[in-house]
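Lab notebook, bench 4. The sequencing result for the construct came back, and we need a structural model before the next group meeting so we can plan mutations. Quick request posted to the team channel:

Model the 3D structure of this chain.
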Amino acid sequence: MPYRESFYRYLMTQRDPDSTDDVAQFANNAQNDPTFPRQEQDYEKLSEYLELNAGYLPSMTIFDQAYKMYQEKMSY
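Done. Here's the predicted structure in token form:
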């Protein structure tokens, strides 16, 4: 299986403290989450973590959007 970077590592490329974009705000907040599963790639595991621990994520649809972008980037 070819190397695939973690979702967190991809998400960090979306950070922008000056942006009002939902995914950028998610990335900014995830950076400050010390327990974020930084090595994880699996949608279900990430989703479960965020549902239980990410009070900074106003809607899981933002995660879904970011994960879709991650999958598109990783499918080269």
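Helices lie at 7-12, 22-31, 43-53, 60-74.
Will bring this to the meeting.
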